[in-house]
Write a structure and sequence with these properties.
There is one protein chain. The chain is α/β, with parallel strands linked by helices. It folds into two domains: 194 residues, Vaccinia Virus protein VP39 (Rossmann fold, 3-Layer(aba) Sandwich); 96 residues, no CATH class. Helix content is 38%, strand content 26%. It has ten helices and 13 strands. It has an eight-stranded mixed sheet with strand order 1-4-3-2-5-6-13-12, sandwiched between helices. Strands 7-8-11 form a three-stranded antiparallel sheet. Helix 5 links the parallel strand 3 and strand 4. The mean pLDDT is 94.
Length: 333
């Protein structure tokens, strides 16, 4: 009997959503006409941004990827041993799925076959990474969902025909305000059954120097990643930003427990955006906020889980106690 080809084992679902370019234009206009100015980190991840983030994961200062990979390599067998053969592996914000391969291989060793459901905003990255996985793993089936998390959750409910391990790796939870993170966990909880588990990667509070270097590496990859949001405005909205006139900056707000990323104007300047019919003025030294990345204490992780209506079932740390993987389950009364 002939094995199904990679493409025969691949289904791509594009979640219905509003026109992304119109949404991008609307949010850019709102952010650049506000005081202080800001741009949303959700727009970092066009194709170029996704590739730059993969490069960030390789720089020596960015410990998060290495720490999370260590945890998964050490504990993959334990994490996957709780699931039956009908398991579906779901991933929110899959990217290249580099770390996910560890869990895919653990499931395949244990059960022989696996269905993987990656959800990612980058259509191109999603398709490329899925086909690469299918080429490597002949007993893997993939149903990929091209959408943001919120739209993808609706699609996930239709695929709930057995136990699922839902992955939210890479400290993506940190990009949400704390109340928003709890709200999103509640939305995920609404799609879960008692046999499902949610595995959340959460970065831990630590020394300012370690954190600021992680988000402002010496080779400048994170700076390119941050500046790419202006390049994207230039490409997609007819913007005329001079990228050389802005400087990337990352600072740790210790009281709040978050890294804050900014683009600072190095001189007084104006930039027009043709599609918006907008001209934006910047004073020398004016800052434009682009991203927050929240860090958590152990107590804050427990509080987050409880606020999301979930209970902590397991927690694993890397050898230097920098990063955590947290297995969350429904609260059963």
């Amino acid at each position: 009997m002939t094995m199904p080809t990679s493409r025969e084992r691949f289904t791509l679902i594009a979640a219905e959503a509003e026109d992304h370019l119109a949404e991008f234009a609307r949010d850019v206009k709102a952010g650049l006409t506000a005081q202080p100015k800001s741009l949303s980190c959700r727009y970092f991840y066009d194709r170029k941004g996704s590739l730059l983030f993969e490069a960030i994961c390789q720089v020596p200062e960015y410990y998060l990827t290495r720490a999370e990979r260590e945890i998964l390599l050490t504990h993959a067998t334990e994490i996957t041993s709780r699931f039956s053969t009908r398991t579906t592996l779901v991933e929110l914000g899959s990217g290249s799925a580099a770390k996910t391969r560890i869990l895919i291989e653990a499931f395949l060793r244990r059960h022989g076959t696996l269905r993987y459901v990656p959800v990612d905003i980058s259509h191109t990255m999603l398709k490329e990474s899925s086909l690469a996985l299918l080429e490597q793993y002949p007993h893997l089936k993939i149903v990929a969902i091209a959408s943001e998390y919120h739209d993808g959750l609706h699609q996930l409910q239709a695929l709930a025909d057995g136990p699922r391990l839902i992955l939210w790796l890479g400290s993506n939870v940190g990009n949400f305000e704390r109340a928003e993170a709890a709200d999103f966990l509640r939305r995920v909880r609404e799609t879960m059954s008692p046999s499902d588990r949610l595995l959340v990667g959460i970065d831990l509070r630590k020394d300012r120097g370690v954190l600021e270097k992680a988000y402002d590496d010496a080779s400048g990859v994170t700076a390119q990643f941050n500046l790419n949001i202006l390049a994207r405005i230039n490409r997609e909205l007819g913007g005329h930003f001079d990228l050389q006139a802005f400087r990337h900056r990352a600072v740790y707000n210790e009281e709040i427990g978050r890294i804050e990323m900014y683009l600072d104007s190095t001189r007084a300047q104006r930039a027009s955006i043709e599609r918006l019919g907008l001209e934006v003025s910047f004073a020398a030294g004016e800052t434009m906020h682009t991203e927050n990345s929240y860090k958590y204490s152990f107590a804050e992780i427990e509080t987050l889980a409880a606020a999301g209506g979930l209970r902590m079932e397991g927690q694993w740390l890397d050898s230097e106690r920098r990063f955590s993987e947290n297995s969350l389950a429904l609260v059963v009364s």
